[in-house]
Amino acid sequence: MNAVHQLFSLEGRIALVTGGSSGIGRVIAMGLAEAGAAIIHVARKEEELQDATKEVEKRDGKAAYLSCDLFKIDEISEILEKACSFFGAPDILVNAAGTNLRQPWEEITVESWDRQIDINLKAPFFVARHLVPKMKKKNWGRIINIASLQSERAFPNSIPYGASKGGVVQLTRAMAEAWSAGESGITCNAIAPGFFKTGLTSALYDKKEVIDALARQTIIGRNGELEDLKGVAIFLASPASAYITGQTIFVDGGWTAK
Predict the structure, then answer these.
(1) 61-85 pLDDT tens trace
(2) Active-site residues: which are they?
(3) How far apart are the first and last CA of the chain?
(4) Does the domain made of 3-253 have the CATH classification 3.40.50.720?
(5) What distance separates the 2 farthest-apart alpha carbons in the chain?
(6) Which among 100, 210, 105, 84 is positioned nearest to 164, based on CA atoms?
(7) What totals of helices (H) and strands (E) does the chain contain, helices first?
């Protein structure tokens, strides 16, 4: 293995990816697997989890899955202990599970507000908190949160989602302050995707004029392809990013640079 390969290799690492059955979480999980990590997918839908796991295995990777609803915060510890039984304790965590109910402000209920805040903001903390002591024992860990273009920009019908994703950016800084000190070997960073086609945005793809307008908001001139997220995820999960913590990297084609 040459020096550059070693810098980005995840051989021997174990990655737990919430929301790993579809969309952003699934493509990041695949990227980490391609770099050598064993993958544990965590999400709600059994069939999609099975498909994601088989996709990794077809490419000669190691993968497993657990079905759970991260809205049920009190079940997280039990689920994570089960996750450790597959390949050992994860030393990479990707918090990719998320939801956006896209309600007009007057239709937001306490229940819908809580579901979005709990899944997008509360769960990433409690999942990470459970795994951090295991990372500290290894003197190595990578926590990657998924922020959003809406961490920085306001969009219609997304008040709870925007609030939660703004919170993810500050949560990432606070995690870094708490867990990256000294010789812990743990880094905490976030990826903020721009506009990508996922389950949360697929309905908009029926409106070509909207999609074209979104592409024009970028500097590069196109919307994101999910494959665009693999490189930054591998970088933040690898030894190459050892001196980077508390940061949010926008993968948005230059949208927020304008």
Answers:
(1) 999 999 999 988 888 999 999 999 9
(2) 161
(3) 40
(4) yes
(5) 58
(6) 100
(7) 9, 7
